[in-house]
């Protein structure tokens, strides 16, 4: 019998997360601790509960630029090896506690150099935290090193991704405000990564429209699209029929993964509401859609909660949640054998057990 999963049941499902920012998922108590230890003076409050409320309220503005401002505080306290290692370790624990079996977590090494760390020290500190956390909590975590699109260090960061790809860095990304900073500004980095047979994703189609998506795919060769929400602008709906434009048709035909983050997309104004989020239509049209958290602290969310919202709004059952999860694992930058092992040995059996253990019919 098909059932509508509850939040607690979803937490037990073996899930996959592809789009999660390390500096966007720090525990509020850890932010306060690290601020006190480092002498960081700018926190709006040092009480963990009040700090959580502040982050969520500041992020819930409808503006991507305002949303990004909240990161000044989390990044501000992540400027030492000890801080970076602690945040990565706790991230692994938090994701494992949410039932995630594989995750790719991204961060921008260039933002953690204020107190004298080198790029290499930043990467190694994060890798150390994830290695220890992954081992202790039974989760596989790969990292994506991110270049900021308004800066000029993308080649440096791309070289860093290649240098550490056998140590746990599984890919590269660019992030930051899209408007005025097209991905083609970093074309040399993407061409280098392609020559090195390296994986990369590009934030595109979140704060800007179809040109950002087109450039990310056709000029830069992105393996995945970070968000990709505005692909909906190339789809015309007439009643029960949908007509895809050339770009949307290409994205679907090529099975280009969309790293969608429903709550975050609403907060930044990329979607009006969960009910109006393009994910519903794109799932019906069988795009390669994945569900993600983006920034767990700012959005006050988890992957289980993102799934629960989709269940509530779209009436999804276990088959839908498994479809999203398998999509994510297929699209991961992990080796093919690892992906196959998790899909067939962990994800499908885990969902099968949950699916047939329920007794509550869908409404």
Automatic annotation (TrEMBL):
Coiled coil: none annotated. Zn(2+) binds at residues 19, 21, 203, 294. Signal peptide: none annotated. Substrate binds at residues 21, 23, 176. One of its GO terms (cellular component) is cytosol. Residues 14-348 form the Adenosine deaminase domain. GO terms for molecular function: 2'-deoxyadenosine deaminase activity; adenosine deaminase activity; zinc ion binding. Its cofactor is Zn(2+). It catalyses: 2'-deoxyadenosine + H2O + H(+) = 2'-deoxyinosine + NH4(+); adenosine + H2O + H(+) = inosine + NH4(+). Binds 1 zinc ion per subunit. Keywords: Hydrolase, Metal-binding, Nucleotide metabolism, Zinc. InterPro entries: A_deaminase, A_deaminase_dom, Ado/ade_deaminase, Metal_Hydrolase. Its EC number is 3.5.4.4. The active site is at 206 (proton donor). GO terms for biological process: adenosine catabolic process; hypoxanthine salvage; inosine biosynthetic process; nucleotide metabolic process; purine ribonucleoside monophosphate biosynthetic process. The record marks 227 as: Important for catalytic activity. NCBIfam families: aden_deam, PRK09358.1-2. Catalyzes the hydrolytic deamination of adenosine and 2-deoxyadenosine. Belongs to the metallo-dependent hydrolases superfamily. Adenosine and AMP deaminases family. Adenosine deaminase subfamily. This is Adenosine deaminase. It comes from Actinomadura spongiicola. The gene is add.
């Amino acid at each position: 019998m098909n059932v509508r999963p509850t939040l607690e049941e979803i937490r037990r499902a073996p899930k996959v997360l592809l789009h999660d920012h390390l500096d966007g998922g720090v525990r509020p108590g850890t932010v306060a601790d690290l601020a006190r230890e480092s002498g960081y003076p700018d926190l709006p409050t040092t009480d963990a509960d009040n700090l959580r409320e502040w982050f969520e309220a500041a992020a819930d503005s409808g503006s991507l630029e305002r949303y990004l401002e909240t990161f000044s505080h989390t990044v501000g306290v992540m400027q030492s090896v000890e801080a970076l290692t602690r945040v990565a370790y706790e991230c692994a624990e938090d994701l494992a506690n949410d039932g995630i079996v594989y995750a790719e977590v991204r961060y921008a090494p260039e933002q953690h150099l204020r107190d004298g760390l080198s790029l290499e020290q930043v990467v190694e500190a994060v890798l150390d935290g994830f290695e220890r956390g992954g081992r202790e909590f039974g989760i596989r975590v790969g990292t994506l090193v991110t270049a900021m699109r308004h800066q000029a260090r993308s080649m440096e960061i791309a070289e860093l991704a290649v240098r550490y790809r056998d140590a746990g860095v599984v890919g590269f990304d660019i992030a930051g405000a899209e408007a005025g900073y097209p991905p083609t500004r970093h074309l040399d980095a993407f061409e280098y990564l392609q020559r090195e047979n390296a994986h990369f994703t590009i934030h595109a189609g979140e704060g800007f429209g179809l040109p950002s998506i087109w450039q990310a795919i056709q000029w830069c060769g992105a393996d995945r699209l970070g968000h990709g929400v505005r692909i909906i602008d190339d789809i015309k709906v007439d009643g029960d029929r949908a007509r895809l434009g050339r770009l949307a048709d290409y994205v679907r035909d090529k099975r280009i993964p969309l790293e969608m983050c429903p709550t975050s997309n609403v907060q930044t104004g990329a979607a009006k509401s969960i009910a109006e989020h393009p994910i519903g239509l794109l799932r019906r049209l069988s795009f390669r859609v994945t569900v993600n958290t983006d920034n767990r602290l700012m959005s006050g969310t988890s992957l289980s909660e993102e799934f629960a919202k989709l269940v509530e709004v779209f009436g999804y059952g276990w088959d839908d949640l498994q479809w999203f999860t398998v999509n994510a694992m297929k699209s991961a930058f992990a080796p093919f054998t690892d992906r196959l092992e998790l899909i067939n040995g962990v994800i499908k059996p885990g969902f099968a057990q949950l699916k047939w253990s329920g007794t509550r019919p869908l409404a």
